[in-house]
Write a structure and sequence with these properties.
alpha+beta, Enolase-like, domain 1, Cytochrome-c3 Hydrogenase, chain B, 15 helices, 17 strands, 19% strand, globular
Length: 488
């Protein structure tokens, strides 16, 4: 096969497609009848990093500096989530001015990511079929001004992270109780001038990107949603806030609110359930009240979920762009490829929100000392790809428990559900390998999965690796596990 492997049995055929243009490695596995009709679909995550176990015993104060190493793409979001959880574990209450700096760190990486994905992964899929190799380079040949503007915006996002976070990748400014320093005034002023200079690039990027996708409405409509729920952080005022607020779970068909819970503490454990599955290193996530198996209660998190959850972006232009999308596609917004549309809408909102903050000097205080060495903290914030959770337990300042649930882990079961919604009953024997691959990739890439982030570690209850010998119907025949280390 051009894009993967194919195994032929006497009764069943298994197509295994390696996904490209994603961070990390993943397979889409199609099981077909002898006639070629798809009977089932699996989404396999094959990366394993084991970060959580490596960090046990480390000082909780160090976690905001090391957890960003999970990912170089959205490391700033892990930094902010980590310090928000560490605040609670150490009994610290960060001052409002510190939260302004933390929010800027997260908004900067969101701006970078929400422009990066359409340029590299999303928009090339909307190029005409006549374009043989769809990529950012092909997009640049057809829309050079769009790509040039997008690259400038991506760089601006990283610059925000650098000025407010101390480094553009793997920031270090957040500490339990606040932040270590204020952003240098001269650097903030330079950044303010750059945001004013590139405002036209933001307008051009949003207009051209949305025009391309709205003209591809038929493509967006052709991939039905299969997930059950959507989830997003919502500000206390019901508006757009990617750092603090309440977590909202909505019905995937109507966007009606099904549940809300706190963005701090153990509350998430009452609403979300994690599963291990024998074919993937990802622990899949579903709602707890529909948790009989990983195929029920699947949850979609992304800019699409946020577009349904929030009343306003607090930016009039972004709200107007969302209204335009509603005219084209109706509400609630459901189709997975619409995630790319709302990444562009969010980029417009983020640009203005950041520009407003650059006009306001940071006051005092920016730090409040922690009050304890032993405690527990969990934090929910929004990463560019969706809802992110960090959960720590500290004893005498050392981490004794770490759980990190990333957007890609939450989305894994939703990706499977969307793939099933498209492929089930389809006769792929009548399709070329490239055609099958293109449809699978369109669904997977719409989620922008970050596979290295999505993997969990070995614990006393779950071993890191198991090899499953299965028949052509995926029924396990033998499960081989490594021996447990002594002392477990």
């Amino acid at each position: 096969m051009a894009h993967g492997e194919e195994k032929t049995e006497t009764r069943r055929r298994i197509k295994k497609l390696l996904m490209t243009l994603i961070e990390g490695h993943a397979f889409v596995v199609l099981k077909t009848s002898p006639g070629g009709t798809v009977e089932d679909v699996l989404y396999e995550g094959v990366d394993t990093r084991m970060f959580e176990t490596m960090w046990l015993g480390m000082s909780v104060d160090e976690l905001p500096r090391v957890t960003p190493m999970i990912c170089g793409v959205c490391s700033a979001t892990h930094h902010v989530a980590s310090v928000k959880a560490a605040d609670q574990a150490r009994g610290a209450e960060a001052p409002p001015e510190a939260w302004r700096i933390r929010r800027m760190i997260n908004m900067g990486i969101h701006l970078n990511n929400q422009v990066l994905h359409p340029l590299v992964f999303g928009l090339p899929d909307f190029l005409p079929p006549s374009v043989e190799k769809r990529s950012m380079f092909a997009l640049a040949q057809r829309e050079p001004e769009l790509v040039k503007a997008g690259v400038a915006l991506m760089e601006l996002g990283h610059r925000v992270v650098e000025v407010y976070g101390g480094r553009d990748i793997h920031p270090i400014n957040g500490i339990p109780g606040g932040v270590a320093r204020k952003p240098p005034r001269e650097e903030v002023e330079k950044l303010r001038e750059r945001f004013e200079k590139h405002r036209g690039d933001m307008e051009l990027f949003a207009k051209k990107a949305l025009d391309i996708m709205f003209s591809g409405k038929e493509k967006i409509d052709s991939y039905p949603p299969g997930y059950t729920y959507m989830m997003s952080l919502v500000g206390d005022d019901g508006g757009y806030d990617i750092v603090n607020g309440r977590v909202r779970i909505m019905d995937g068909r109507t966007a009606a609110v099904e549940a809300e819970f706190s963005d701090r503490g153990r509350d998430y454990l009452n609403y979300l359930h994690e599963y291990t599955v024998p074919y993937s290193y990802i622990r899949m996530v579903t709602t707890k009240w529909r948790a009989k198996n990983p195929r029920e209660g699947t949850i979609h998190v992304s800019a699409l979920a946020r577009a349904n959850a929030v009343k306003t972006y607090h930016v009039e232009w972004a709200d107007e762009l969302r209204d335009r999308a509603a005219e084209e596609f109706g509400r609630p917004f459901r189709h997975p490829l619409l995630s790319t549309v709302f990444r562009v809408v969010e980029s417009a909102a983020l640009y203005e929100l950041i520009a407003r903050e650059l006009e306001r000097p940071i006051g005092d205080p920016i730090y409040s000392p922690p009050s304890r060495d032993t405690g527990e903290g969990a934090a929910v914030i929004e990463a560019p790809r969706g809802t992110l959770i960090h959960h720590y337990v500290a004893e005498e300042g050392k981490a004794t428990f770490i759980n990190i649930i990333t957007p890609t882990a939450i989305n894994a079961a939703a990706i499977e559900a969307d793939l099933r919604a498209y492929f089930m009953g389809l006769n792929v024997a009548e399709m070329s390998d490239d055609e099958v691959y293109a449809h699978a990739a369109a669904v997977v890439r719409s989620y922008d999965p970050c596979m290295a982030c999505a993997t969990h570690a070995a614990t006393r209850d779950r071993v890191a690796l198991r090899i499953v010998v299965a028949d052509e119907n995926w029924k396990p025949l033998r499960v081989l596990k490594p021996p447990r280390p002594r002392g477990w």
